[in-house]
Design a protein that fits this description.
The chain is an alpha/beta fold. The chain has a single domain (2-349), classed as Alpha/Beta hydrolase fold, catalytic domain (Rossmann fold, 3-Layer(aba) Sandwich), CATH 3.40.50.1820. Helix content is 38%, strand content 14%. The protein has a nine-stranded mixed beta sheet, sandwiched between helices. Helix 3 packs across helix 8 (310-349) and helix 4 (147-160) packs across helix 5 (175-190). The chain is globular and about 70 Å long.
Length: 350
């Protein structure tokens, strides 16, 4: 385990128009042809330096299930989620074990890393007061589908061997949001435990954006040329029913918190996916199981900018509230089940 040191930064509250203009002029044109993928990766990480993480977290490079991983832990919390002390500046804090998060970064399956998402990951770790594993799964075109999915599954299984499922949270943005759903479906189909909660931030659930000409032109990051480049690089089938997220049976999955913006490229697809989530929850008599939050504006993954946008921090706070609440409920249910089983065993022994 090698230390990357303490992250340190000061949060800002810049005007949204200024941030949106910067993204459209400086980042969006570079993501996609004619720029090579290697340069896109470099430029995304370079631009992310303007969205720094918060003070006080410890960042280490580790491996998780054989997958390269960056582990971010807030002060007073151990890597397994055990609490070793109160938050900085406080004499009180949670005394029980904390959630443990597996984070799957976005980047259209071909770009992205911990460095491009350090701000989001850092604020998530601090807000939830929980360790966050930001795995660096294999990217295309060097590794085609389903390499990244296999890495996510391996990392989740490694966490499950250390931490009970009722304390696990899986989260991701954009392409990583799709990977969250893929992971939940794979776990359900194989009969493995679901996490206590899942988070999908502006998931790229519909790669066939050409079906809606003119939609998402104000999106701050994603453009159509990038989608075409991704489709060719990943070689992910678009007509296989097991690889298409929209239209899948969504019952039997962990509670999901979904966020997206009204003017981003995938807004219509996210709305369709949200409707499927509601239908799946209602079909099992649990209409409040999932949570959907829609933000006005063009930001793709609004929550990814907590270092510079006040509304981004508010969006991330909703993620924290949802995840903490679901973990608390799942932990209480697990404890009650254990007590019931122990009581039953005692009665039989008597």
């Amino acid at each position: 385990m090698s230390a990357l040191g303490k992250v340190a930064a000061v949060k800002l509250s810049l005007p949204e128009w200024l941030v949106a203009t910067f993204l459209r002029l400086c980042l969006k044109p570079v993501l996609g042809p004619p720029f090579p993928i290697a340069f896109q990766r470099f430029w995304m990480e370079f631009c992310a330096l303007l969205n720094p993480p918060p003070l006080g977290n410890t960042v280490r490079r580790v491996t998780l299930g054989g997958v390269p991983d960056v582990l971010v832990t807030p002060a007073g919390v151990e890597p397994d989620g055990e609490v070793s002390g109160p938050p900085p500046g406080s004499t009180k804090g949670p005394t029980g074990p904390r959630p443990v998060v597996l984070y799957l970064h976005g980047g259209a399956f071909i770009t992205g890393s911990y460095r491009s998402h350090a701000g989001l990951v850092g604020y998530l770790a601090r807000g939830l007061r929980a360790p966050v594993h930001a795995i660096e799964y294999r990217l295309g075109p060097e590794h085609t589908w389903p390499a990244g999915h296999d890495d996510a599954l391996a990392a989740y299984r490694a966490l499950l061997a250390r931490v009970p499922a009722h304390r696990l949270v899986v989260a991701g943005d954009s392409a990583g949001g799709v990977m969250v759903a893929d992971l939940l479906l794979a776990l359900r189909d194989s009969g493995e435990p679901q996490p206590a909660a899942a988070v999908m931030l502006s998931p790229a659930v519909g790669l066939d954006a050409e079906r809606r000409p003119g939609a998402g032109e104000r999106d701050t990051v994603v453009r159509r040329g990038w989608i075409a480049q991704v489709t060719a690089a990943m070689q992910r089938p678009t007509d296989d029913p097991h690889e298409v997220l929209l239209g899948r049976d969504l019952t039997g999955l962990a509670p999901i918190h979904l966020q997206y913006s009204t003017e981003e490229l995938f807004a219509d697809e996210c709305a369709e996916f949200a409707a499927q989530l509601r239908a799946a929850a209602q079909s099992v008599g649990s209409p409040d199981r999932n949570e959907v939050r829609v933000f006005a504006g063009p930001f793709h993954v609004l929550a990814v900018l907590p270092g510079v946008l006040k509304r981004s921090r508010a969006a991330l706070a909703e993620v924290v509230q949802f995840a903490a609440g679901r973990v608390h409920a799942a932990t209480a249910a697990a404890d009650a089940a254990q007590e019931s089983a122990q009581a039953g065993g005692t009665a039989q022994a008597g």
